[in-house]
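User: Can you fold this complex?
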Amino acid sequence: QITLKESGPTLVKATQTLTLTCTLSGSSVSNSGVGVGWIRQSPGKALEWLAIIYWSDQEGYRPSLRTRLTIRKDTPRNQVVLTMINMDPLDTGTYYCVHIMGIQFFGTWGQGTQVIVSS
Amino acid sequence: QSALTQPRSVSGSPGQSVTISCTGSNSDVGSYRYVSWYQQYPGKAPKVVISDVSKRPSGVPDRFSGSKSGNTASLTISGLQTDDEADYYCCSYAGSHTWVFGGGTRLTVL
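Assistant: Here's the predicted assembly.
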């Protein structure tokens, strides 16, 4: 059984940098075909796909946020880290870590971590 | 990359069927069979109910079905039950390791 656990600050100030960590269990970030990504949801709003990184180190980013996002793997710790610079109150929401095999579907989701950006 | 278009809300009575549409473009829905649908209850993480346009992951009732025609995908829920009341999101692969979600549809079971 694959489980994902997000961790990071609940409160950040505008213009600061957000760093979120996703820790995997039951799967490895280095297993062939494995991708781990991030999806967020602002209060009362729709899901927004943000970024993904694969076992092969291939990356993908939401085009509108490309300049603000960086995703990387920490293979020894079996973690994926998302960094978002220049945070804004509009970035407030729940950030989910997701697991995917290939490009089919996001089969496993973390419980989500809430991020509040204060002005 | 624009969000996929879904109706904001749909409703139906128990036992009835409802269909939720998801319209994209030639860059996403129209080009790939990697369209998935997610069910989300308030305060909970989403859960996949349909993958690859029309496949049901293990454990998903066969009341859930999916299809696609051109740039529009659809999710149909037949034999509506009260616990189907939730938000539903479509999602499509959009190439170059990117994905796009729909705006979400609130399903109300009357």
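The mean pLDDT of chain A is 96. The two ends of chain A are 40 Å apart (CA to CA).
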